[in-house]
Every structure is written in C-alpha cells, then in structure tokens.
C-alpha cells in the first residue's frame, strides 16, 4: 500500500476539513434545517454513579455548550434527589448560569411537586429583579415525560401511563399559565426493558395526548437504544397518522450502535429536531444496560456537507471542534474517555497532525 507523505497527508486533511465546513447555511432550504436539543447536562449526567457532580461543573458544561452554538439545552431536572441524586442541585445550576438570550435552558419536571419547586424559584427571581432588573428568566421551558408502556412508566414514574397523562395535563396547564413552554417525551417507543416490543399505536396515542394537552413538541425516545432503522421508520409511519411530523423529535440511545442510523432515518421521515448528548453521555436509571444518547459530535459530523443544516444559536451553527473538546473535558471530569466516535477520531487525528509537524 502507498503511504502518503506527511505533507500530502496534511494537505489532504486540510482539504477534507475545508470541504466539510464549506457548505454555506444559505444554500440549505428551510425544510432541511435541523435543530439539536442538547440533553447531556440532564439525560447525560443523571445516571452517573459515584460522587455527585459539583454544581460548578454542571454550570461550566452548560455555558460551554451555549458558547459552542447550542440554543436548546436541558440544564437539569426537578425530580426526587432520593432516586436521581445527580440532579439534586438543579435549582442552583439555574441560579448560577449566565443566561444568553435566545437560548432555552429547559428542565425536566416529573410531577406537580417538581413544578411547584420551579415556580417558587421563578417567583423568587422575579422579586429580586425588582431591585436588580434586566436579567432573563432562569428558564422558560419544562419537559414532561411518560412512557408508552405501563411497566416502564411504573418503574420510572411510579404510576400507570393513564395516571401519568392525567398528572401531566395538570402540570402542563399550570406551566403554560405561568408562561413556560412545555415539551413532552415518550419513552420506550421501540422496545421496553420490561415488556418487550412496543405497540406503535400506543406511542401514537400517548404522543397525540401530550400535544393535545399543550406540549409544543414530543420527543420520541428509544430509551433502551435497541431500535433499528427499519423499526424507527415503521414507528414514525404509525405516529405520523395522528401527529404532525413538525412536532416530533427523535431521541435515540446508542446501546446497540444504531443511534446515528436512526437519526438519519428520522430525518428522512421528516423529523427535524434531534436530541443528542455531548460526548455520548448518559443512560437511563430505569433502563438497565442502556448507554448514552447519540453523541452531538457524531450527529454534527454525519450531517456536515449534506443537504441538512444544523441550526445554532443566533442564526449560526454549532461548532464541531468545540463540541469535541467539551465532550472530552466532561468525560475526563467523570474519569473516562469521550464515548463519541467522532470525538475520538478527531482527537486522534489532531494529535497525529501535531506530532507529524
Ligand atoms: C417519579 C417520582 C416523581 C414519584 O414520586 P412520588 O410519587 O412522590 O413517590 P416516591 O416514593 O418516588 O417519592 C420519593 C420521595 O421523593 C419526593 N419527591 C417526589 N417528587 C419530587 C420532586 N419532583 N422533587 C423532589 N422530590 C420529590 C417525595 O416527596 C418523596 O419524599 P420522601 O417522602 O421520601 O421524603 C419520583 O420518584 C422521581 O422524581 N423519580 C425520578 C424520575 C426520573 O428522573 N427519571 C429519569 C428521567 S426520565 C428519562 O430519563 C427518559 C427520557 C426523558 O430521557 C426520555 C427517554 O430516553 O426515554
């Protein structure tokens, strides 16, 4: 095999980089604009075993993600710290974050108690603003969640799907009255760790119920990360019978290595919002063995130079190189390597380029 000289190799890499980054946003039609919801700070960190991650680290993570161009980020959750200790400091995270305009810092809320805690925090901030005016709200968005199967819902939310929907209806109504927008999740849309293959009609019914309650979007979660592209396609075909595809998002865990293929399948089926996690962080406390979400870096890389354009903050895009750095930084804080394939490849390439100079 012919081995290229270091000079040719560098020139080739520079050309590849230029090509990858050179498709101007204006060249993409509006119908191919893709939004990313960065779930690393919530879905990614919630399942971390060991010591509780300091609030400062979480704040730095969110702020770095926003500086890299992220405009939708899940900053934490108002859930029971007894069950999910890593999310315990979310109120402090919201208070300490320097907020950028145009960015949604959403939080996951499981029940009325979680919403009450959040509303109290927002009321306190409003009172403070009487003396210290001008700062944006701590958050303008919550996410609610329910599964497509009773068994998963009982493990995750301590009640049946129907009971959850009743609670969510009340939470959504109150949140909306307080000016918060509400995003919905449906978990285990392909397979459930407790009851096997999911009935896609159930996914359709639950997604439809969430939208009817006032959620502006519903994210469909392959929580277990077992889904294959043809299953994602079949599931979407069923859900789209009742739900406009513009109001759907895809949330794919990568347990079986199919997440990026599932993202591409969802995009080809018209879905335009993808949940992703920097460094491929994550797992679900109620889905044994499930690994992290599709990594944000992998999604950005897969779409570079394609017909799709990933929208970033203030009309820009999300910077892949910065996301790779963040993925490595947070993974090292957690005592391991980045789980992002692209993160690993780019780091290896960059270190080779540096040593061959
Ligand atoms: C499910 C519930 C709400 C049931 O809460 P419960 O019905 O009150 O029952 P419980 O026995 O679980 O309650 C435990 C304790 O938590 C308290 N509590 C109750 N609610 C809250 C709250 N909001 N904030 C703070 N504390 C709360 C409650 O008052 C009680 O306190 P104690 O009496 O023992 O002192 C609770 O157990 C809980 O918060 N569980 C954690 C659920 C969770 O965070 N799951 C992971 C996120 S979902 C996910 O990852 C899937 C997703 C969204 O990413 C999409 C996908 O991939 O599929």
Automatic annotation (TrEMBL):
Record GO biological process: ketone body biosynthetic process; L-leucine catabolic process
A single MF term (Gene Ontology): metal ion binding
Pfam families: HMGL-like
Enzyme superclass (EC): lyase
Key words of the record: Lyase, Metal-binding
Annotated pathway: Metabolic intermediate metabolism; (S)-3-hydroxy-3-methylglutaryl-CoA degradation; acetoacetate from (S)-3-hydroxy-3-methylglutaryl-CoA: step 1/1
Record field: catalytic activity: (3S)-3-hydroxy-3-methylglutaryl-CoA = acetoacetate + acetyl-CoA
Domain of life: Eukaryota
EC identifiers of the protein: 4.1.3.4
Residues making up the signal peptide according to the UniProt record: none
Chain ranges of the Pyruvate carboxyltransferase domain: 34-324
SUPFAM superfamilies, per the entry: Aldolase
Family indicated by similarity: Belongs to the HMG-CoA lyase family.
The protein, known as: hydroxymethylglutaryl-CoA lyase
Biological source species: Ephemerocybe angulata
């Amino acid at each position: 095999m012919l081995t290229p000289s270091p000079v040719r190799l560098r020139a080739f890499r520079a050309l590849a980089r230029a090509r990858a980054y050179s498709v101007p946003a204006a060249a993409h039609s509006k119908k191919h604009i893709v939004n990313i919801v960065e779930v690393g700070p919530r879905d990614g960190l919630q399942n971390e075993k060991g010591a509780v991650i300091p609030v400062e680290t979480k704040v730095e993570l969110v702020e770095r993600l926003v500086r890299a161009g992220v405009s939708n980020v899940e900053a934490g959750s108002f859930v029971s710290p007894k069950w999910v200790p890593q999310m315990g400091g979310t109120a402090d995270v919201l208070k300490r974050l320097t907020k950028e305009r145009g960015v949604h810092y959403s939080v996951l809320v499981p029940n009325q108690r979680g919403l009450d805690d959040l509303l109290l925090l927002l009321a306190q901030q409003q009172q403070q603003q009487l003396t210290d005016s001008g700062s944006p709200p701590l958050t303008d968005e919550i996410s609610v969640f329910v599964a497509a199967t009773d068994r998963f819902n009982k493990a995750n939310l301590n009640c049946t799907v129907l009971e959850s929907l009743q609670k969510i209806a009340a939470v959504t109504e109150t949140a909306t009255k307080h000016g918060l927008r509400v995003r919905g999740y449906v978990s285990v849309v392909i397979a459930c760790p407790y009851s096997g293959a999911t009935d896609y009609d159930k996914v359709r019914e639950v997604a439809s119920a969430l939208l009817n309650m006032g959620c502006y979007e519903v994210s469909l979660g392959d929580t277990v990360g077992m889904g294959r592209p043809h299953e994602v396609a079949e599931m979407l075909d069923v859900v789209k019978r009742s739900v406009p595809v513009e109001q759907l998002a895809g949330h794919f865990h990568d347990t079986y290595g199919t997440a990026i293929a599932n993202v591409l399948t969802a995009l080809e089926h018209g879905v335009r919002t993808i949940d992703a996690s920097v460094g491929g962080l994550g797992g679900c406390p109620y889905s044994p063995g499930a690994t992290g979400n599709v990594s944000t870096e992998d999604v950005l890389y897969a779409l570079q130079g394609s017909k799709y354009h990933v929208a970033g903050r203030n009309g820009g895009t999300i910077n892949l190189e910065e996301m790779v750095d963040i993925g490595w930084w947070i993974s090292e804080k957690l005592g391991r390597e980045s789980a992002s394939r692209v993160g690993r490849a780019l780091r290896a390439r960059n270190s080779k380029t540096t040593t061959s100079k």
